[in-house]
Amino acid sequence: MFEISFIPAFKDNYIWLLTQGKRAYVVDPGDAAPVQARLEADGLTLEGILITHHHADHQGGVAELKARWQAEVYAPGNESITGCTCPLSGGESLDVLGQNVKVMAVPGHTLGHLAYYVPGALFCGDTLFGAGCGRLFEGTPAQMSASLDSIAALPDDTLIYCAHEYTEMNLRFARAVEPENPALLARVAKVAALREAGLPSVPSTLAEEKATNPFLRCQEAAVVEAGLEHVISGRNGNAAQGAMAIHDHSKTEIFAAIRSWRNSF
Fold first, then answer.
1. Do the strands 23-27 and 86-88 form a parallel or antiparallel pair, or are they unpaired?
2. Is 187 among the domain residues?
3. Are 99 and 226 contained in the same domain?
4. pLDDT of residue 88
5. What is the pLDDT of residues 44-83, one digit of tens each?
6. Cα-atom radius of gyration of the chain, to the nearest Å?
């Protein structure tokens, strides 16, 4: 298995560095400068770039890195990605530093969003965060809910390498949804200690997300109740959606209610 480490960028981005000996790939290099500095410091050769979606903080460094290293750029084929050499749509298998990496289509945050899975690790961009999920800038609640279901079907010991340090903020919302969840309260304490020590809160395990992340718990009674209460209270400003959710609260509708609540939290 290749080694995985992070390169911090901007205010809270993580650029994931994959290495095997002196060979390297990076995931979502929004800024070329810190990547270039790390490659030079460690004597690495950049062979490939994996892009999850088109937002600038995930692909802004591609052009400079590609020009310097002539690296292959794997990215969503239906999104505008600078320098993409290998357009993907999901379902493909890639050879990354000798490992078979599965490409997963996970639309929701953007329509072409991809995740990259190798047994033991998932690089999921802005689809799943520590204790949260991405905003629906382009996709629908149904799309994002289905994308999260596909992630939840992976082995519980999968490490979730998301692209932002959002966990502490997301946990505040998760506690509002499930204030009596003991696993959640334990995670709040653990993450607070990590951040106080200047350490990252990611990766988490998929099992931990299933136990504490409200967006993976939309069939749990406490989350359903909290979502319905939010809809009924009118805080999402959509009476028609509220009436539908009260009488027929599918998992997707509960997800939509929780995501709407999170948007204004």
1. unpaired
2. no
3. no
4. 98
5. 999 999 999 999 999 999 999 999 999 999 999 999 998 9
6. 19
- Considering the domain architecture, whether residues 158 and 251 belong to the same structural domain is answered as no
Mean pLDDT, the chain cut into blocks of 10 residues (265 residues total): 97 98 98 98 98 98 96 97 96 98 98 98 98 97 97 98 98 97 98 97 98 97 90 56 54 94 93
- 174 domain residue, yes or no: no
| Catalytic machinery residues | 53, 55, 57-58, 109, 126, 164
pTM: 0.93
Residue 57 maps to which CATH number? 3.60.15.10
What is the domain extent for residue 260? 218-265
Instruction: Give pLDDT, residue 248.
Output: 58
Distances (CA, A) of 62 to 30, 123, 198: 7, 17, 28
Distances (CA, A) of 106 to 8, 124, 145, 218: 24, 8, 9, 18
**At a CB cut-off of 8 Å and minimum separation 6, what does 95 contact?**
101
Amino acid at 45: T
Rounded CA-CA distance 87/79 in Å is: 9
Given this model, what pLDDT does residue 164 score? 98
What is the CB neighbour count within 10 angstroms for residue 22? 10
Please answer whether residues 153 and 193 qualify as being in contact, where contact means their C-beta atoms are separated by less than 8 angstroms: no
Do 142 and 242 belong together in one domain? no
For the chain, give the percent of residues with pLDDT over 70.
94
The residue among 207, 132, 127, 144 whose CA lies nearest residue 169 is 132
Q: What sections of the chain are H helices per DSSP?
A: 32-42, 56-59, 62-69, 141-152, 167-177, 182-196, 206-212, 221-232, 239-247, 251-263
